[in-house]
Amino acid sequence: MQKRVEKEWDLAIDPDTVRFFILKAKAISAAVNDDYADGSEHEVELDSQSRDSHLHDGLAEEAEENLTEEELRELINDLNVDEAAELIALAWIGRGDYDAAEWTEAVNEARQRTNKRVSKYLLGMPLLADWLEEGLEAIGA
Questions:
Q1: Measured between alpha carbons, how far is 100 from 8 in angstroms, rounded to an integer?
Q2: Where are the domains of the chain?
Q3: Cα 126 to chain center, whole Å?
Q4: Among 42, 57, 107, 133, who pairs with 89 as Cys (CB 3.0-4.6 Å)?
C-alpha cells in the first residue's frame, strides 16, 4: 500500500470521475471473473462423451458487458490530455511505479505517452480499478 502524502492536490480530473471509472472497471472485471470462476460450473454435457463450455446466459448479457466496457472506453477517450495523463498517473501510483510524492513526475511522463490509445492501455491493466483506488488514496483525494 502506498504511503499517503499530505498535500493539497489541484487535479484536472475530478476525483468523483475517477471513482465512477473505478465502478465501471469493477463491473467489467466482475463480469469477466464470473465467467472464469470455477470453469466447470459452466460446462454443459452434450452427450456421455462430449462437453461444451457455456460462458454466459445469452446475447443480452453479452451485450450488457460489452456496453459497460465500451462506455468506459468512450468516457476515457473523451478526457482531455491533462485528465488522461492524471488518470494514467493515478494508475501508476496505485500500481507502485511511482510514489505519491512523485506525482508531478508521473503526470509529466504520462502526458508524454498520452495518445489515442489511452483507453486501450488503461483497460488492458488487469487491476485497473484497484490501482486507481490506491492511487486516489495515496494522494489523499
A1: 12
A2: 15-139
A3: 7
A4: 107
Q: Which helix (H) or strand (E) holds 89?
A: helix 81-95
pLDDT digit string (tens) for 59-96? 444 444 456 888 999 999 999 999 999 999 999 999 99
- Helix, strand and coil in the chain, % to nearest 5: 65, 5, 30
* Per-residue pLDDT tens over the stretch 37-54: 444 444 444 455 555 444
Only one residue has cell 468516457, namely 75
Q: Find all residues with CB under 8 Å of 42, minimum gap 6, and list them.
A: 35, 53, 54, 55
What letter does residue 55 receive in the DSSP assignment?
-
Beta bridge partners of 43: 53
Bigger pLDDT: 138 vs 42: 138
**Residues 83 and 13: beta-carbon distance below 8 Å:** yes
